[in-house]
Amino acid sequence: MDIPKLVWNSVEATDLIKNGKPVVLLDCPLSIPVANRWTNEFLASVISPEYLCDIYVSDSKRFQYWDSKRNTAYNFTAPTMKESMTFTEFNQCVMGNSKIIESSNETKSKSLKNYYLQQAVVVEMGPKMMEEYMRFSLEAALKFKVEGGWDSFSTNLLLVGSAGYITPCHYDEQQNLFAQINGIKRVRLFPPSAWKRLYTYPYNHPCDRQTRVILPVIPGSSLLDNEIDRFNFPFFQSDCNENTSEYFIDLQPGEVLYIPQYWFHQMEGLTDNISLSWWFKDQTKHSNKTQIDLSSVSMIALRRNIENLISSTVGNQKKAHEFFLAMAANRIPITRPIDIEVSSIFIKSTILNSNQENHNEQFYFPHASDVEAAKDIFIEESWSDLLAQAIKIAGMVVGNQAQNFLQELVAGRFNNLPLV
Ligand code: OGA
Ligand code: FE
């Protein structure tokens, strides 16, 4: 599906932003003033020659984000390394690579490293770079923040990458105005409702917020999905409908894409390119509203909270992983009735009655791979109570859909992840 392209301060664009829908903003002063002006050479001339930038180094052209603080239970090899170097050194690394590519096709397939600069623009980069930064209209950023009902501006991120580089599919927990400054970036977007199709890594995994489904990159047409691993990720296709399907855009210099919080996105450099992300915090997290606003509280935020809550109760991350596998396979019995009281909309319902016969027979039929993955797991007695509590908490927001909600939370997500 296409994303609408609208003049940045038009009423139509503002409406989309207010409603948390993606839009490409044209003529926007958060990109236009430096579009095509910033190049690798130009940035090297304005950023202080002493300033050390964060560079991600990868053997492949995929730059998968990972969080080293979440590496306790999973057997995981870091896909990228972080290095510090000046902008000029960075340019030399990038240029060095293109020279090698030109001179020999054989070296190309060997141990070429790839370098992706991902660094916030900060005062320490010196007065010339600050002069550049002041070209942006920060009033425009403020207008979006106010109209979108967002919280404070959190950070920017300058991204300088080469043709073919990919940031794999993930979501961020913040609102993002993504400014394309030089070259072309293909952005593939999925709404938060595509959650089940994309199989995010567990909350405790270093690849938290990233999808386990690997989207194939097909030159000219990213939309083909015939290389998707359909066996391990069956919902990618079976759960595809008009609410869960993909949007995409080839973002040109000067264009700014609004990526709403929790929308999945994959970025692919179609040419060498420069972008700048403007991130804003999510107001819903800080609001002191007394009622739960179902339309704006993202379901993904709720899933994250519940997953985190369960993990921290179970004892250790390995056990938590097993709990979720068992839950996906529907192997945790619910042994007492659960009253659900939905405080904001005053619904009270009993979702499971212990007098009922076959109280283990729930309305969810797990996928065969989940059943297989969980077949040898020892079910601890305390897990029944924990599951009941999780259903109760989820029920406060989604009412008697709580059980479906939890099953969707875990289905297929915890299989085949090697533990240590
Ligand atoms: C982002 C993002 C990655 C990239 O801005 O949120 O994921 O490669 N960017 O541009
Ligand atoms: Fe992102």
Question: What would a concise description of this structure say?
Answer:
This protein is of the alpha+beta class and 420 residues long. The protein contains 14 helices and 15 strands.
The number of distinct β-strands equals 15
Proportion of beta-strand residues? 15-25%
List cofactors, ions and other ligands. Answer: N-oxalylglycine, fe (iii) ion
Strands in their spatial order, largest beta sheet: 1-2-11-8-13-6-5-3-4
N- to C-terminal distance: 41 Å
* Dominant shape: globular
User: Which residue ranges are poorly predicted, with pLDDT under 50 across at least 5 consecutive positions?
Assistant: 286-291, 343-362
- The radius of gyration computed from the alpha-carbon positions, rounded to a whole number of angstroms, is 23 Å
The helix-strand sequence is EHEHEEHHEHHEEEEHHEEEEHHHEEHHH
Percent in helix: 25-40%
Largest sheet: 9 strands, mixed
Q: What is the typical, i.e. mean, pLDDT?
A: 87
Structure class: alpha+beta
Alpha plus pi helix count: 14
Describe it for me?
It is a single chain. The chain is globular, with a radius of gyration of 23 Å. It has 420 residues and is of the alpha+beta class. It has helices at residues 11-18, 40-46, 87-103, 105-109, 127-133, 138-148, 195-198, 235-238, 283-286, 299-314, 317-328, 368-373, 382-398, 402-410, and strands at residues 5-7, 23-26, 53-58, 81-85, 114-119, 153-161, 166-170, 175-182, 185-190, 247-251, 256-259, 264-269, 273-280, 338-342, 347-352. A hairpin with a 4-residue loop joins strand 14 and strand 15 (347-352). It is built from 14 helices and 15 strands. A 9-stranded mixed beta sheet has the order 1-2-11-8-13-6-5-3-4. Strands 7-12-9-10 form a 4-stranded antiparallel beta sheet, with no helix packed on it. Strands 14-15 form a two-stranded antiparallel ribbon. The model is unreliable at 286-291 and 343-362 (pLDDT under 50). The two termini are 41 Å apart. Bound molecules: N-oxalylglycine and fe (iii) ion.
